[in-house]
């Protein structure tokens, strides 16, 4: 029932920046975790950054720490991913996801826990 729409992807040179946005149709009492995942051709889906939207706690995969920042805007029901110092290895389709709720996640970057998914936005980083 939750619809997610991503935007902000594009093509950028290495070292550049992009900001991805994920607008949710609704945030209910059961919505607790949201995040960004990516999948490159020939590779499995990888958790990039997630946020516990009720407390602002954030998690990042090691490869993006210090470069990416996840944030939220409650009024707009939107989660952002600020991506700085982009590298070629960041090239992928980026998906927004939301968990419906039902308990604390000890592995918040695991995609299997998430209930709702957007259709993705492509990020291409050239060197």
Helix content: under 10%
- The helix-and-strand class reads mainly beta
Characterize the overall form: globular
Beta-strand content estimate: over 45%
Q: Strand-and-helix sequence, N→C?
A: EEEEEEEEEEE
For the biggest sheet, the summary is:
7 strands, mixed
Computed Rg:
14 Å
- Contiguous low-pLDDT stretches (5 residues minimum) are none
Our count of helices gives: 0
Number of beta-strand segments = 11
**Terminal CA distance:** 40 Å
Q: Overall pLDDT, averaged? A: 95
What does this structure look like?
The protein has 127 residues and is mainly β. It has no helices and 11 strands. It has strands spanning 4-7, 10-13, 18-24, 33-39, 46-52, 57-60, 68-73, 78-83, 92-98, 116-117, 121-126. The model has no long low-confidence stretch (mean pLDDT 95).
Short précis:
This protein is 0% helix and 47% strand.
Write the layout of secondary structure elements.
Layout: E1 4-7, E2 10-13, E3 18-24, E4 33-39, E5 46-52, E6 57-60, E7 68-73, E8 78-83, E9 92-98, E10 116-117, E11 121-126
Parallel strand pairs: 2-11
Antiparallel strand pairs: 1-3, 3-8, 4-5, 4-9, 5-6, 7-8, 9-10, 9-11
Defining traits:
four-stranded antiparallel sheet; 127 residues; mainly beta; seven-stranded mixed sheet
């Amino acid at each position: 029932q939750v619809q997610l729409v991503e935007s902000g992807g594009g093509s950028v040179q290495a070292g550049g920046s992009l900001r991805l946005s994920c607008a949710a149709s609704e945030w209910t009492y059961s919505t607790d975790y949201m995040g960004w995942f990516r999948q490159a051709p020939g590779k499995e889906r990888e958790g990039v950054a997630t946020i516990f939207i009720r407390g602002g706690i954030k998690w990042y995969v090691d490869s993006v720490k210090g470069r990416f920042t996840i944030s939220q805007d409650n009024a707009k029901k939107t989660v952002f991913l600020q991506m700085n110092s982009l590298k070629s290895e960041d090239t992928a389709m980026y998906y927004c996801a939301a968990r419906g709720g039902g308990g604390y996640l000890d592995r918040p970057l695991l995609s299997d826990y998430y209930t709702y998914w957007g259709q993705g936005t492509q990020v291409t980083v050239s060197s």
